[in-house]
Specification:
Shape of chain C: globular
Strand order of the largest sheet of chain C: 8-1-2-10-9
Structural class of chain C: mainly beta
Keywords (chain B): Phosphoprotein
Number of domains of chain B: 1
Protein name (chain C): Chemotaxis protein CheW
GO cellular component, one term (chain C): cytosol
Strand content of chain B: 15-25%
Number of strands of chain B: 5
Pfam family, one (chain B): Response_reg
Distance between the termini of chain C: 23 Å
CATH class of chain B: Alpha Beta
Radius of gyration of chain C: 15 Å
Domain CheW-like (chain C): 14-154
Number of domains of chain C: 1
Shape of chain B: globular
CATH topology of chain C: OB fold (Dihydrolipoamide Acetyltransferase, E2P)
Oligomer: heterotrimer
Helix content of chain C: under 10%
CATH topology of chain B: Rossmann fold
Largest sheet of chain C: 5 strands, mixed
Helix content of chain B: 40-55%
Order of helices and strands of chain C: EEEEEHEEEEEH
Number of strands of chain C: 10
Structural class of chain B: alpha/beta
Largest interface: A-B, 66 and 56 residues
Strand content of chain C: over 45%
Distance between the termini of chain B: 10 Å
Chains: A alpha+beta, B alpha/beta, C mainly beta
CATH architecture of chain B: 3-Layer(aba) Sandwich
CATH superfamily of chain C: CheA-289, Domain 4
CATH class of chain C: Mainly Beta
């Protein structure tokens, strides 16, 4: 925190993320628009350009080099010198991916050049027609090398100079500077006085105003009648003096020449054959009142006119960057606040106050405020899923390239926001699913054409808020699940009995079984070794669910439902065997009262509950949690019907439903491993810890214990 | 009297760096993120000098400088262009738009400060 | 089995120990590892946990596991009444509560007073003892917390 440059450097990398995002956006727009979209090209150009500019400031030469060569191609595209064909589009995407790798490498001080850079650069350079050996001029220091502009050393010969005695201790000849501003100099808001002042600071020994000063009444503020003659000490280099005039180069007549030394016998220094007056440039007309176009081709008809303001950017909301630790601290504190509020509410309730006591109404507003603060704080952590989706677009491109398939990703609902942690932890499972979809879902081009589909397969990735949760849908228009083969495989591996009467949905869900694989050969790409069971566990760990549906020949859809935050959840507080537990509301389909007649046993001992015509496995929660021993089948009481991620249901027997409320999620730590059926813990109003159930996990483990059919997977 | 400068750049990194470099030199820095924002900022400001990037969304540097020069109040306000390009034709374009000078990115803070003092006619501190 | 992980062993150095009672026996841990002592709170039981892990309690907003030290050392469980206490110790960055019958004293011993425990091969309790000492004619057993709570040390940084 103490080093402002380190902070700015971090800020730069944060900005790079945003720039890479706009780069992807721009490329996406370009790839989708039929006609060349000038603004999209500008957006991509600016993004790469800004990365280059910032990288240069930190001396990240490798990154600068890559960005520069990428930018050159974008510049050609911008000026219409390149046509955007599919091959170029692919190259631009590829370069964007690599630019991201370069940014990451630079951020991590990783000197390894990202894989594939060389090939990509070669392709870029081939287009730009650049000589790859050419050094990037951008990395030069503040002042560019002084170009030998030719507006000096012209008509005024040194012969016209009065001989002037300068006695200097150095043996170097002093410089005589002749400076004659033109009108344009004044028009560009340059001020000769300031230039002279700077020369004085540098040690000018003599400044003489020269030239024909017009009568005062003819004098305008920008009349160019005045010129100066300045003597500068000889220890300065010509470059140092010329630098002062850098900004007015071309706006004035300037000569810098060594003064002849007074003592001629000391004349062993090089002043004599000076100055090597370069040829005047073609534009170097000497007209005193030239129109304000001393150089440069067409100042008015500038290409790349400022684009019209664009919607999203138009009202860019002001933002502030905050260290994530501070936010996390705030989130934790708000969690404490929520717990304290709950405790307070409980104490007030127990105090048995009058319903209209002011303490009560005060507490009510306090409760409301707490909830609002909590929501606001959670919103700080919320981020759009867009960066995640862009990463997935890259996965699709790479997976498609690796499998020789034609696949495009269609992102929907990218602005949907969700907690940053959810986004981060969704990346791995989603990557795996996307690779699977490309590898196993989308058919090879020839097969697609055979099937009457477009050559290019489409994977749609969508996000939306639904009932207080984030719903992500990943669908492909590929071949769908080959259920016959899935079932055969599952039977062959002993995952289901050979005669299991499985419906379509149940067969699809076999994909989530640990170790399941239908791929004839394990593909290097999706690495079927880790299967969808890992994906499901990862989503599970986030408090999410994943469901699958598929139509043979048409494609497969995965639906992932996730909490919007990992900090709080809406839960149902229940009591079982004297223990208080919290069941996530999102997993509860309904609560019901059992009637003895509704409870049956199948396969000898497995109890099921008949619920409106279908049978739902019955779970004696108290026994499953180890609160009491196994009991004979319980036939009355209350059940919570919960949704399992495979679309199945289970009924949990509870003693009492206490209340519905929001609870702060507390991790159980890693000290005692994962507890089956338990997702996390929370602190209740009485200060005690209650466990938060993971019903699906609970039922799955119950299944493993062999007390239900695999049917209830 | 300290200088006051408006710096317009769409890159947050460059804005941060300008803020740091100029601020630590005792210059009062105002920042804007593109040409439009720059013009808006000028409604309530009379800086001694302006620094502007070229490639910016909404209104680029050329457009910004031209617009500033059209304002009578800023006809004589020095404008330095921040550019990654050393190409003469870019400078010429910037100058034609009304720029006073240019600075090549990445900039060297002391030199930038010196340049500002020079174009704004103030002695170095 | 003679390592003395939980106590300092500089020659002649003074060691401060917190002693407590488990059943009829007296045990102690290095005071440096003790964070605080709390009265009995009924822990929330964790399903499928080993019996000595009695559950978790709320320690100012964090979830603190509570280990029944008596049960862990192969003796009868601590009953859990108002006289019992939970000693919160910090081992390798993890906080854990040790449920004991009662806290007795703070002892200051010279390291010379410590004796290696007798080799009682096979005895489960013995491997948790890093040293013995005689204080006022009572035998005090100094616990090796890393051995008592190996789960917390496997991930030690």
């Amino acid at each position: 925190m103490s080093d402002p440059m380190a902070e700015i450097r971090e800020g730069f990398f944060a900005e790079c993320e945003e720039l890479l995002e706009s780069l992807q956006d721009g490329l996406q727009t370009l790839s989708e628009s039929a006609a060349p979209d000038a603004e999209a090209v500008n957006v991509t150009f600016r993004a790469v350009h800004s990365i280059k500019g910032g990288a240069g400031a930190f001396g990240l030469d490798t990154l600068v080099g890559f960005a520069h060569r990428y930018e050159s191609v974008l510049d050609l595209l911008r000026s219409g010198k390149l046509d955007l064909d599919p091959a170029l589009m692919r190259l631009l995407f590829r370069a964007a991916d690599l630019l991201q790798d370069h940014v990451r490498a630079a951020h991590e001080d990783d000197p390894t050049v990202p894989e594939g850079s060389a090939d990509c650069l070669e392709a870029l350079d081939a287009l730009a027609g650049a000589d790859p050996a050419e050094p990037e001029p951008e990395v030069t220091d503040f002042q560019p090398l002084v170009l030998s502009f030719g507006d000096f050393g012209s008509e005024e010969s040194s012969a016209a100079l009065p001989s002037f005695m300068v006695l200097d201790s150095t043996s170097l000849a002093d410089w005589e500077v002749r400076f004659h501003p033109r009108t344009e100099l004044y028009r560009s808001a340059n001020e000769p006085l300031y230039l002279l002042r700077t020369l004085t600071d540098l040690g000018a020994t003599e400044i003489v105003c020269d030239g024909d000063i017009p009568p005062l009444e003819d004098l305008t503020e920008d009349s160019a009648e005045i010129c100066w003659r300045i003597v500068m000490p000889g220890h300065l280099s010509e470059t140092e003096i010329r630098e002062v005039f850098d900004f007015v180069d071309g706006l004035c007549d300037l000569t810098i020449a060594p003064l002849p030394l007074a003592e001629v016998e000391e004349n062993s220094e090089p002043p004599a054959p000076w100055p090597p007056v370069p040829a005047p440039p073609p534009t170097g007309e000497q007209t005193k009142d030239a129109p304000p176009a001393p150089a440069g081709p067409k100042p008015e008809s500038a290409p790349g006119e400022p684009p019209p303001a664009r919607e999203a950017h138009g009202e860019a909301a002001a933002t502030v960057r905050v260290n994530l630790d501070r936010i996390d601290r705030l989130v934790n504190l708000v969690g404490e606040l929520v717990i304290t509020q709950a405790m307070l509410a409980q104490s007030v309730a127990e105090a048995g106050l009058q319903p209209n006591a002011s303490l009560r109404s005060g507490l009510d507003s306090f409760t409301l405020l707490t909830r609002e603060i909590q929501d606001s704080v959670m919103m700080i952590r919320a981020q759009p899923v867009k960066p995640l989706f862009q990463r997935m677009a890259r996965i699709v491109r790479e997976a498609a390239a690796a499998t020789g398939k034609d696949v495009q990703l269609r992102p929907l609902g990218e602005t949907t926001e969700v907690d940053k942690t959810v986004i981060e932890r969704l990346s791995d499972p989603l990557t795996h699913m996307i690779r699977n979809a490309v590898d196993h879902g989308i058919e090879p081009p020839e097969k697609r054409i055979e099937a009457g589909k477009t050559r290019t397969g489409t994977i749609t990735l969508s996000a939306r808020h639904r009932a207080g949760r984030l719903e992500i849908e990943l669908s492909d228009d590929g071949g769908g699940i080959n259920r016959k083969r899935v079932l055969e495989t599952a039977i062959a591996r002993g995952l289901v009995p050979a005669d299991a009467p499985l419906g379509d949905a149940e067969i699809d869900n076999l994909l989530f079984l640990p170790g399941f694989s239908t791929a004839k050969s394990v593909s290097a790409l999706s690495g079927r070794g880790v299967g969808m069971d890992v994906v499901r566990s990862a989503i599970h760990a986030l408090g999410g669910r994943v469901a699958i549906r598929s139509e043979f020949g048409k494609g497969t859809v995965f639906t992932i439902s996730l909490p919007l935050t990992l900090a709080v959840l809406d839960g149902m507080v229940i009591s079982v065997a004297g223990e208080t537990l919290v069941v996530p509301l999102s997993s509860i389909l309904e609560t019901a009262a059992m009637r003895p007649d509704d409870v049956r046993t199948v396969a000898g001992s497995t109890p099921v509950l008949q619920l409106r015509g279908s049978f739902v496995p019955l779970c004696d929660l108290g026994a499953e949690m180890g609160y009491h021993a196994q009991r004979p089948v319980v036939r009355d009481g209350t059940v919570l019907v919960t949704a399992l991620e495979n679309g199945n249901r289970a009924a949990l027997i509870v003693d009492e439903i206490v209340e519905q409320r929001q609870v702060v999620i507390k991790g159980l730590g890693d000290s005692y491993g994962r507890i089956p059926g338990v997702a996390a813990a929370t602190i209740l109003g009485d200060g005690r810890i209650a466990l938060i159930l993971d019903p699906a996990d609970l039922v799955r483990n119950m299944t493993r214990a062999g007390r239900a059919q695999p049917l209830a997977v | 009297m300290s200088l006051s400068v408006l710096a317009v750049d769409d890159s947050r990194t460059i804005r941060d760096m300008l803020g740091l470099a100029l601020g630590s030199a005792g210059i009062e820095v105002h920042l804007a993120e593109d040409g439009i924002a720059g013009l808006e900022a000028l409604e309530g400001l009379t800086p001694d000098a302006i620094i502007s990037d070229i490639n910016m969304p909404r209104l680029d540097g050329f457009g910004f400088i031209e617009a500033v020069r059209r304002l009578e109040r800023f006809r004589a306000t020095p404008i330095l262009v921040l550019t990654t390009e050393a190409a003469p034709e870019l400078r010429a374009r910037a100058r034609a738009a009304g720029a006073t000078g240019w600075i090549v990115k990445p900039f060297d803070p002391p030199k930038l400060v010196r340049a500002l003092h020079m174009v704004a006619g103030q002695e170095d501190a | 089995m003679t390592q003395q992980n939980s106590v300092q062993k500089h020659h002649g150095a003074e060691i401060e120990l917190l002693s407590f009672r488990l059943g009829e026996d007296e045990y102690c841990v290095g005071i440096m590892s003790v964070r605080e002592i709390r009265g009995w709170t009924r822990p929330t039981p964790l399903p499928h946990a080993p019996p000595h892990l009695r559950g978790v309690i709320n320690l100012r907003g964090t979830v603190l596991p509570v280990v029944d030290l008596s049960l862990r050392l192969g003796m009868d469980p601590v009953g859990g009444d108002a006289r019992n206490v939970i000693i919160v110790v910090q081992i390798n960055g993890h906080a854990v509560g040790l449920l004991v019958h009662a806290v007795s004293d703070i002892l200051a011993l010279e390291s010379d007073d410590l004796q290696p425990p007798p080799e009682t091969a096979g005895s489960d309790g013995a491997r948790f003892i890093s040293a013995l000492a005689i204080v006022d004619e009572r035998m005090v057993r100094i616990l090796n917390l890393e051995a008592v709570l190996p789960d917390l040390t496997v991930e030690a940084a």
